[in-house]
Amino acid sequence: MYCNTDPKPSHHLKPPAPNPSETQLSPLQSMREREYLPLIPKAERTLIRSFLAAVYAARGCTHEPSPLRDAWSQTMELAAGLGTWTLDFELPQLTNRNLLDLVLLLERRLLGGCLVDHMLTHKRRPLSCRTLRGRGHEGWICVLGGSNCIEVNLEKWGREVSPSEPWDFEGVWCSSRLELLCHALAHELVHAVVLNFWPEMDASTPAYIADSRHGPIFRLLNNQLFGHATTALRPKFPRDPNLPRVAAAAAEAAHSLVLPVFRTVMAMEGGQEQGLLIPGAF
Known about the structure:
- The protein is an alpha+beta fold.
- Helices cover 43% and strands 11% of the residues.
- The strands form 3 sheets. The chain has a 4-stranded mixed beta sheet.
- Strand 2 and strand 3 (149-153) form a beta hairpin.
- Helix 4 runs antiparallel to helix 5 (96-110).
- The radius of gyration is 18 Å and the shape is globular.
């Protein structure tokens, strides 16, 4: 999620409702791409198509599932090879420098350097990272704060994420903390793209700011850039490892509640703060 404090309202995330059985997906969260795409005005769709074409050319693959999976696989191998991360990393590895190295790797490999190049060309503040603890932000794992700074909540990264206890991050199965972290940071890069390429869209376009800035424009970019098909984060039930992922997901859909994970709360300054939420068990 993103938070702009220059000097516009800040954004931060809120924990989900205490009783998950009382939470419901918003209409936008329930839509498929073919349903929310017509909600994006033609002018914005033209800008987004042009941007996506540039990213695809720069990174060497489109949004098609197979090449995008390969791109993610290669990126994860490089992330593990940075020397500062392990798949099941411990909290001491969550440093500002390590996080920034990871963000820049994701941006270079999966955005083709388009965001960083744009920031340099237009003299925008560079991407940065910092870790936080407490401050009343109990419900979120990371957020795009002011000045293009991605903030990571240290208190939310002790939960086990493993092949035996995977998590579903926006439609992507994550079997390690590092994989989950990479996808969470990629989510924040979508907000950084909109904020830096199209600040007016970020500030006032209903197709973006709807659903706490997770409207159709966010949904489209998140899916086309990173393969994130939903805006939900949830633990997965134990499953037969021989069952194909698609079949397992379909089987689970009949027995589990897809938790909505984005909410908006009013910040102390009177603005809205947004972020990436997680179920209370994380």
